Here is the input.
Amino acid sequence: MLTLTLTADLSGVTELRPDDTDDNPFWYTFKVQCTSCRETHPNNISVSRFEQNERESTATIMAAPISYQQASPPTRQKIIEIDCRGLEFTEFQPEGEWLATGLESGSKFTAVDLSEGDWFDYDEKAGEEVEYADDI
Here is the structure.
């Protein structure tokens, strides 16, 4: 069982999570290594918790993602659990849309893009900049 954890330096936002619903499934993207030959696949692979796979090597997401809660100092928190058979995920690629909630205002932030590392926006209700910093 693989547990994907996240340590995030959040400012002004909390409840950072993948945008993962029945209508809009999130595709978790990883670099993968075969557990038999130890060869790393040249392309990233993506898995969704709604996809059923009956291949020799499988990865099954066990439940919906858990929101990352803002903490000071930043702490490691579980996001999802994946049952992996015949493969090993070696690196998570945070592609796809994420969601966040304003810490003080409750403002909803959609289409949060973490693929470039850092993310910045402005919370109109709180009158302050919000951010995710990938410097941990």
